Amino acid sequence: MASLQELSLQELCTRVTKTFRHGGGSRPEVILVRLNGEEAVLKDFSKSDPWFRRVVGPLSARREARALEQLAGARGVPRLLRRVGPDALLLEYIPGTSVREVPPGGLTPQFFERFYRLVDRLHEYGVAHCDLRSQGNILVGADGEPHVVDFAANFKRPRSWNFPARWMYAKLCEADRVAVARLKKSHAPKLLTEAENLSLARDRKTWLERTARFIGKSVRNVSRWLLTKQG
Ligand SMILES: Nc1ncnc2c1ncn2[C@@H]1O[C@H](COP(=O)(O)OP(=O)(O)OP(=O)(O)O)[C@@H](O)[C@H]1O
Ligand SMILES: [Mg+2]
C-alpha cells in the first residue's frame, strides 16, 4: 500500500484535506495531507512568491529541518518525517488546536506548568524557539498537552567559546520563557505570579527586546518589498 513517505511534492499536494495557511508573499503553504488513513503536515515554501521562494524558502526549510533533527525525540515537538526537495518539509501531524482559538480561561494551570517544562526541554536539546509570541505556533494537543510548531526562527546553542553568541542564546531562551508568561497574561491573567509580572514588565523595557522587534520588522518588510509581489 502506498505511503505518504513515498510521494513526490506534487503528489502530496493532491492529498490535501485541510489548509492551515495559504502560501503566497513571504509565507509557505501549510496543509494537512492524508493517504490510506495516514496523516501528515506539509509545509511548502515553494508556494510563496518567486523571489522569496528562490532565496529565502530553501534556507528557511533547511533551518527548520536542522532544528527539528536536533530536537528528534523531544516530547511536544512534531517529528520531521522528511524533507521533500529543497523547499518543503513533511511533519508529524499534531491533532488539536492552536491556543489562538482557545477562549480566555480555557487553559489550565497544569497546561502552563507543562508548557514551561516543554520550553525548558527545547533549551536542554540546545534550541531556542524564538517565535513563541505567535500564538499560532503553540498547540493544545487532543491529549490536552502543549506542543510547539514552526521552528523557522530558531537559534541553536552556540559552542561554549563563542561568548557573544552564548549570551544572545541565553537572552533568547529567556524570551521563550517570557512568552509562556505572556500567554498566561492573555488567557489566564489571574494565574500570573509576582515573578512573571516582573519578567513581563522587564521584557517590555529591555533594549534587546525593542531592537530585536525593530530589526525583525524591518527585515521582514524590506525582504517582502524586495522579493514578493505584494510590495
Ligand atoms: N505539525 C503540525 N501539526 C498540526 N498543526 C500544525 C503543524 N504544523 C503547523 N500546523 C498548523 O499550521 C499553522 C501554520 O504553520 P506554521 O506556524 O509552521 O507556519 P507559518 O508560515 O509560520 O504560519 P504563521 O505565520 O501563521 O505562524 C500553525 O499555526 C498550526 O495551526
Ligand atoms: Mg507560525
Description:
This protein has helices spanning 9-13, 50-70, 109-124, 163-187, 194-205, 207-227; strands spanning 16-21, 29-35, 38-44, 80-84, 88-92, 96-98, 127-128, 138-141, 146-148, 155-156. By secondary structure, the protein is of the alpha+beta class. It has two domains: 4-92, Phosphorylase Kinase, domain 1; 96-227, Transferase(Phosphotransferase) domain 1 (Transferase(Phosphotransferase), domain 1), CATH 1.10.510. The strands form three sheets. The protein has a five-stranded antiparallel β-sheet. The protein has a three-stranded antiparallel β-sheet with strand order 6-8-9. It has a two-stranded antiparallel sheet with strand order 7-10. A hairpin with a 3-residue loop joins strand 4 and strand 5. Helix 2 (50-70) crosses helix 6, helix 3 (109-124) packs antiparallel against helix 4 and helix 4 packs across helix 5 (194-205). The chain is globular, with a radius of gyration of 18 Å. The chain starts with 8 loop residues before the first helix and ends with a helix.
